[in-house]
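User: Predict the structure for this protein chain, please.
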Amino acid sequence: VSAEPFHGKPDGAAVFVDECGGGWTYVSNSEKGDSSKYTGGVGALYFNARNEVIGYKMIQKKTRRNCSGGRTWWATWLTCEEVSGGGVYEVEPKNNNPSIKRKTLLGQNGRNGGAYEGVAYDNRFPDDVNFRPKFFLTEDAPKGPLE
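Assistant: Here is the predicted structure, written as structure tokens:
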């Protein structure tokens, strides 16, 4: 199905429905690498409507130790680097250019300098103009804050 081998050290993951073809996509972080080795990333397995694997590819490369992450309500994946000075990147499940990194504003105020673990959001009132959605980001540290 793919010449590219499945990524090592899989970690945080999510599933996305393919609205056009009836299939779905499983995205998974790769916790490979360290603070100096950019060997982590995000891989994607693609399934058809009969739940058969039809493809695999890396959709984010050149990141470090991608731990958990989180899904957005607009159907993208946020991947977290679990290293000092790490970042949080937004990834499209069908990304065709895995070397481009889309860094988010999440974690810009990291009190422990990065080492991000996971992301969650609160958008329980999407039709209420007075409710502002919120993201929550955790850091993997003994006293790591919830931002």
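The chain has a mean pLDDT of 88.
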